[in-house]
Amino acid sequence: MSGVRTTCPYCGVGCGVIATPTGERTAAIKGDADHPANRGKLCSKGTHLGETIGLEGRLLHPMIGAKRASWDEALDLIAARFSAAIAEHGPDSVAFYASGQMLSEDYYVANKLMKGFIGTGNIDTNSRLCMSSAVAAHVRAFGEDVVPCSYDDLDAADLIILVGSNTAWCHPVIWQRIEAARKARGTKLVVIDPRRTETAECADLHLAIAPDTDVALFTGLLAEAQRRWQLDGRYLAECVSVPAGFWKDLPKLDVARICDIAPEDLRAFYDLFVAHPRTVTLFSQGVNQSVRGTDKGNAVINLHLATGRIGKPGAGPFSITGQPNAMGGREVGGLASTLAAHMGFSDAERDRAQRFWRSPTICAGPGLKAVDLFNAMARGKIKAVWIMATNPAVSMPDARMARVALANCPFVVVSDCIAETDTSLYAQVKLPALGWGEKDGTVTNSERRVSRQRPFLAPPGETRADWWAVAEVGRRMGFANGFDFAGPASIFREFAAQTGFENEGSRALDLSDKAGLGDADYDAMAPFQWGGVSPFAERRYPTSDGRARLVPIAFSPRDDGGRDTRLRLNTGRYRDQWHTMTRTGLSPTLSQHRREPLVEIHPDTARSYGLNDGGLARVTTAQGNSIFRVAITSSMRRREVFVPIHWTDKTSGAGRTGLLPGDDRDPISGQPGFKNTPATIAPFKPEWSGFLITRDRPVAPDCAYWTLVRTAHGWLTEIAGKGDPAMLRALLPTGERAEMIDARRGVVRAAVAVDGIMHGALFVSRIGDLPPREWLIAQFGATDTPTMEMLAGRPAKPAPDRGPIICVCFDVGMKTIIAAIAERSLMTVEAVGAAINAGTNCGSCRPAIAKLLPASKDSAHA
Ligand SMILES: Nc1nc2c(c(=O)[nH]1)N[C@H]1C(S)=C(S)[C@@H](COP(=O)(O)OP(=O)(O)OC[C@H]3O[C@@H](n4cnc5c(=O)[nH]c(N)nc54)[C@H](O)[C@@H]3O)O[C@H]1N2
Ligand SMILES: Nc1nc2c(c(=O)[nH]1)N[C@H]1C(S)=C(S)[C@@H](COP(=O)(O)OP(=O)(O)OC[C@H]3O[C@@H](n4cnc5c(=O)[nH]c(N)nc54)[C@H](O)[C@@H]3O)O[C@H]1N2
Ligand code: SF4
Ligand SMILES: [Mo]
User: Ligand 2 atom closest to Cα of 573?
Assistant: First the structure.
């Protein structure tokens, strides 16, 4: 097979990928130079997709309980249990919990079944945890969930403000585009994030504001814009409806104090804004995942509307999506708070949807939002739930409660590609879904661009498309007519037709020109953007009077971050891992960047809590506690800690972030405030610590702390605990074993080889003298490493220590880069690339390399 054009399954940048199969389950991956989203570029995650398409851990056939079942048995059972629950307790007793990682076709069929045929609004999605505040802000300001910008605007802007976005890690190809624009045109960059991320490190100005003080910052900027004659009176008069008293009620705030930033920095921000009318404000989870998320979004949008910085090249508020199809899910109506195709729940809209679907019923109104849905489940109100393409036992706030909810639901169906997830443990029925490279349909990216995901691998085992399973259940529930789709093309045509049905220009989402597409045209469909490059360029908004709205935002005591003296817990992402690691966790290359979940903390705060760099600490909140490796860094504000979301029960004994956040949420969007939870921290002092390297995946060790990641030739398990460390030898595989035990110092070292090839190695110590991991890991790919060298943990003739891997594409360590910079007086990231290749492939590590250069603010700490 030659190269197949498809779309990356990770973030909402939506990069075009060309996948060329090189074997049954292997493929060469490269960026699609013709795709407008990425023009050939890919980040580290996209570049290494080929390492994640094997069959390891896949669910290959349906399961009922612990037993393999046929599709017929499983689908009949689901239809029967959902029908019985509806008959006995009504349609609101059942629910779907879907995901921005489903294709639009899957999503469309699920939404149609729930809202139009079962007749309840109870379908929500993990986008509730991700995009719902931005959706609510768009609807309040524009009348419809429309993103006003395109990536082209990043090329044309003179000032880019990133709010609550670690773009360099989470949207790396957008980041590369921003960097290119800065180089070409001198675009100014401001980053607003309590942490000094690698994104912030590269900015012209970084405002490390106190958590959740964005409303004050943007309200202050709006007032400043008014004071300095920056308001666009004509735009306001012609295109915006301004509520009475809006300007009079703008609170007068001491912004620098509230945000806890230097007044000169605040002034510099204001001056940059005044000097650069072409401003794009790009925002993501630091805005959305907040109890003030919707107001934060509207504070940003208000500013752009009032200054007329919208609907023009290089200007606008730009909410970027997280998941590959977060936007598509919003389009079809996958959120409990929209009906379908950007329609709400008015009588007219419900009637219109019912006539279009020719359905027996239609839901009466919105359904339960994710957190409310799980709370209802915990109270026994939900009798059957179907979870697709998401892992809520990990990703919901207060994940322990989410598990209680799942355990309390009499019938749980889980559709996933992976056999065992933390969520599927609670499933009565497991359905094997097609994964990336197998599934076939469309996704919509951050700039409203619809692209095809095309299959290039044969479906393994009995895996089937999610839409097919939902349609089959719909048919078996007696809804034969609505669900006889021949394939994704026919679903797409129906969805496209629905977007245009009785639309007459009232909704910007209108794909009806695609409703007559033939199957072959659908297969060949090139990426296209609905709404055009700039949906509001014509200065008309999809509201009843065609005007946008300024939204008054009441300032609340919760916006005043400065006065709070408790420790705040912030959570987020690592550059090379994706969510619960079911896919990126399979890639040895991607697993090198961060091998353990770290709790990052400021040096002063670490000192006052008695924490040591590299030691362990227990983070406790009202919901639960978890143990993490301590990383002391001045990139954190004082009294704030940051932990990653990626580790699960499958990959960690205690490093579980999901247990910590509470379910406090934005009152309008229902999105949880994942980024700001009161917490405490204390040192965790194990009696011993160490690590285990194995060729095969080890059983979970029985000790207080363990975390597991992939290596090039197997697995690395970090361990720490109490009791006799010698018992850990039971974790080693069988083979020729060499051991060294020093009971007095509490040292255990063991290595197991089979026919000269390493199969296991264990290093434990009570006094912390552990050898570096990298050389030992590499020995698992070598033959006949002398036993003495293994037990010593280093070669007889030592190779230089490369330090932690920075560039995963060329396998270059931090110490190698620092040495090259010093020896060859390198001054730029390009010079480092030319000298030692680092940073010259996917480019994801370029911000990290920049940090090591002599000009960097941070290089002294490196
Ligand atoms: N590598 C990688 N990339 C991903 C993902 C992944 O798992 N891994 N997931 C994808 C998904 S689904 C999503 S939603 C996106 C998320 O992309 P981002 O939103 O960029 O990622 P996060 O790390 O969740 O959070 C962004 C930043 O918000 C900051 N923040 C916290 N509180 C506040 C605050 O009160 N105000 C401000 N201004 N900032 C604050 C945090 O310190 C953090 O640096 O990433 C997508 N891309
Ligand atoms: N504390 C904290 N919690 C958070 C966040 C945070 O920043 N902090 N971020 C939130 C956000 S923004 C998000 S998006 C969520 C993400 O959280 P989740 O959605 O729970 O995370 P994933 O690991 O992406 O789960 C996707 C699952 O779907 C499976 N899958 C992949 N493709 C398919 C498919 O085509 N069909 C089916 N049926 N299954 C498939 C994968 O194997 C995996 O098990 O986490 C949220 N939770
Ligand atoms: S930026 Fe990276 S993860 Fe996001 S779509 Fe592009 S290649 Fe995939
Ligand atoms: Mo997300």
Answer: 7
